[in-house]
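User: Assemble these into one structure.

Assistant: Restating your components, then the assembled model:
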Amino acid sequence: MELMRRSWAIVWKDLLIEARTKQAFNAMVFFAALVLFIFSFALGPDTELLREVSGGLLWVGIAFTGILSLNRTYQSEETSGGIEGLRVYPGDPRAIFLGKLFGNIIVLLAVEAVLFPAAAVLFQIEMLPHVGELAVVALLGTIGFSIVGTFYAALTVNLRAREVMLPLLLFPALVPMLLGAVNATTLILVGDPMQDSDIWIRLLIAFDVIFFVISTWIFPIALEE
Amino acid sequence: MAVRSVYGRATGTSPGSVAGLREEVITSAPTIGPAVELQDFSKRFGWNRVLRGIDLRVERGTTLALVGPNGAGKTTLLKCLVTLLHPSGGGGTVCGYDLREETDQIRERVGLVTVRGYIYDDLSAEENLRFTARMCGLEVSAEGYRAALARVGLERVADQRVRTFSTGMRKRVVLAQLRLRPLELALLDEPYAGLDLQGMSLVDEFVREFRAAGTTVIIASHQAGEATRSAEQTLVLREGRLEPMDHDAAARSHLSAQDIGAERA
Amino acid sequence: MIVTSNSGTARLIGIAALVTMLVGSFVGLFVVSPDRLQGDVQRLMYVHVPAAWLAFLAFFIVFLMSVLYLIQRDLKWDRVAHASAEIGVVFTVLTLALGSMWGKPTWGVWWTWDPRLTTTAIMLAIYVGYLAIRSFADDPDKRARWAAIVGIIGFANVPIVYLSVIWWRTLHQPPSSPRSVSPEILWTLLFNLLAFTLVYVYLMMRRIRLAKVEGELEQRVAYNG
């Protein structure tokens, strides 16, 4: 489909530039590792405690790191004339949203691929038996975060107080997603005899679908000049 | 009546083509009527009225020079024509398609060259073209890219990052981008800025080729001489309003727009 | 449906609001009998519940006006949305404060993660975001457009947040209204609800009229300044 091809063209372009400049990925991994370390120090060596809060810690790390990624989503367009440079091409402008969205998801997943194993080591949690379920939750949570984040980043990219406005708008919107991701992850790691994580996974799926539909529908209006 | 264009889709297996490019004819409707028609068109940013009550008609296949001092609104007008900006008042059509309702169709047929160009510093010249091709839904072979770059004299730096390029070289990449796909309307914003004589004659060649292919061209420039020598019609944009200009007088005397203002005063 | 700026009507409504508020407060404080379990503290319900109801109603109006603006692009819808958001913030803060005041003697804590209270707090954050983003655009059309987008997505988020917090806190006290209430409590509550609604309408009429004048002033300054 034309829309998808153009979206992937944008992903290709952004990943290529990122691979060459290596700006964002390194900063994000470093930042995420820092967050994990600080939490380890703060919570001490009590492995029981660490395991219980591990879900929350992981997602705090992912959320903060994710915001770094979001800030730079549209910044890469700045030197090339801004987002105009993408809007001037033929076709549905939603390809811009999808392209940036997929790019954000991929980069964030790449950071998580480092983050989760690091957390397993630092917090001494057995993650391997649950890899499949963790991957599902990580994917759904990352998608939800990226959808809302990519959208609000587009809205705030030209604002003077962008660094304040983006988190301010993002936080309330992320509450359901964070609840879902943190609870699901914690249940998976701590033990889930009653399969409660199902309900949180369903919440994540609903969140992702609802916000994906709303965001792609409204995106062209956010781009208007 | 169809518009013929030289800049066709390039495929790897097209026989009898010149370095991968071949002739293509656009036959989609509507192809009659003016390339641009604006009625009482205005654009404001907040309270700043940049364009006011513009009435404009540009016939297909002609070349229009749009001159005026910096800040007059030339860039804004061009951006409106390529639907980057939404009209504040009035309306019009570009290539027969409504400016408010049919923006996607307009962008399929209209190309814009800006002063800095929409190119990425961290990609090579060829990669920039590749991106443009993909975003326009074009299939271009490797030879096609080489040919496009060779046309603007950049074949030797095809794989160099644009960051290392001079202003003139960047301009050439932008021109190469413009030529990748068939256009009904080409909008050139200050195409001569920052170019040496060789570069400027390259732009003139492009304008000639556009005209031969039936593409309408609008050149915006603050220097009347360069733009008007290629154009059949010249209009002055001053403080958001469009006025006619004595074409021959300006071409002969190479006046700058400021001089035009002084002459009229 | 849009409230007019007719000062005669506004004054009438203002008087009606004042009168009903006085009567409602008097009845709520002195006439109606106190709750058997909670005592006089329960009287806070007569202001807390209407305030909460109006906070959500005001936000719904913001949503509705935002949608109308995006469809019709008439700034009058934006003015109503802006007014409703400002007044809504006041009611939201009032709800939270009263909820806190009610909670301390009843449950011993200033704050609980009760689903409705939590959702109200998050709604406050969304409101603040809505008002904040308006401050970044001088262009009234751009401002209205951004605000409308934030308003729509923000409101869409409220039910999702509510559901997710309910799931999260299923152990907590269930919503208390289904409990059998005596007619005198119900009528007092409804009367106060009417009083608060009249206050809302009166404030809206005044604020919208003010917004109209502000808009004209902005326009005049821009053209002459």
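Residues 2-223 of chain A form one domain.
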